[in-house]
Amino acid sequence: MPSVKTSLVDDLTRQIDAARQAQPGLSREEVAEIVEEVVKSLGGAFSLAEINLYREIDTLAKVIQAAKREIVAVRPDEISDRHIPEAAIELDAVVEATAKATGEILDYAEALEKLGATLPAKARTQITETVTGIFEACNFQDITGQRITKVVKTLNYIETKIGSLLKAFGEELGDLPPLPEEEEEAPVGDAALLNGPQLPQNANSQSEIDAILAGLF
Amino acid sequence: MAVDKSMNVLIVDDYKTMLRIIRNLLNQLGFDNVEEATDGAMALAKLRQGTYGLIISDWNMEPMTGLQLLKEVRADVKLKHIPFVMVTAESKTDNVVAAKAAGVTNYIVKPFNADTLKQKLTAVFGEF
User: Fold this and answer.
1) Quick one: which of B59, B15, B39, B60 has its CA closest to A141?
2) What pTM, to 2 d.p., does this model score?
3) Which of A109, A128, A139 sits opposite B110 (nearest CB)?
4) What confidence tens digit (pLDDT) does each residue in B89-110 have?
5) Which residue of B has its CA nearest to A128?
6) Full DSSP string of B64-121
7) Who among B13, B20, B114 is closest to A106 (CB)?
8) In the prediction, which pLDDT does A119 show?
9) In chain A, what residues touch B112 (CB-CB under 8 Å)?
10) Is B114 on the interface with A (CB under 8 A)?
11) B4 DSSP assignment
12) Is the interface score ipTM higher than 0.90?
């Protein structure tokens, strides 16, 4: 790649040749005079260091533009509008489901304890000890719930930060064309059927599944 | 001094599961008069209306935390004598220090078992 200096000299040589062709009578001295005038006019306006600096700034601007395009490609609006709220809903569903399940376990443990009260002393003691173990084990629901609450708070924090990022770039981010998206490979075959547990409102009940099955056969 | 197991015990937690667990464990220890509150404000209202011999409270509740409840209890002339046991997942030293400074009687870290609950109540009331 030619240096800035070489490039300037080449450019100047081309212009002198053109001037000679336009006015064939120009003497070497006259050409030297013209060159001297041109160089004087440039003196102090653009040093090589300055030209390099402008070039670096130009490169930096291109990097920033590319970074903005990368951000657009990540679709930060989708992260805050869709992915994070969906994750929070899933986590809420986990808390709700474990609370419900723990409640049912406690129902059975309490019923067992009542039953134990009608039994002979030795059996009653054994039942009580077992039931106590169940009560103790159910502690997990409270701890799990608190941990999930912390995760939800972290997700909300990330969402806020993404919002700040979008705000910082403002409308100019929206004006940028996104980089070509890398196509996410959609699962096919049996893998396409692995969606995990559905949220209660999206899931089919057993009776609905029965009805679907009955309709199929 | 023998502990009066017929006294009213107030348990405070925003997780109903925990209220059930603590109630059941207290019942097994012979404390049958157990009342529940799901937040600090409800607890204070109950405490000011009734007579209680023990408060067992969670820390992490909204809008009034267990620590705020403890401070309110200790600042109330009629309530400040009631033993207050904190049952919480907050296990950092700073938490324990803050609770102690606010006047907590004892401190149980979740998850806990029946033996721990009995030990702490024994520390508060003596053998029972």
Assistant:
1) B15
2) 0.69
3) A139
4) 888 899 999 999 999 999 999 8
5) B28
6) S-HHHHHHHHHH-TTTTTS-EEEEES---HHHHHHHHHHT-SEEEESS--HHHHHHHH
7) B20
8) 95
9) 136, 139
10) yes
11) -
12) no
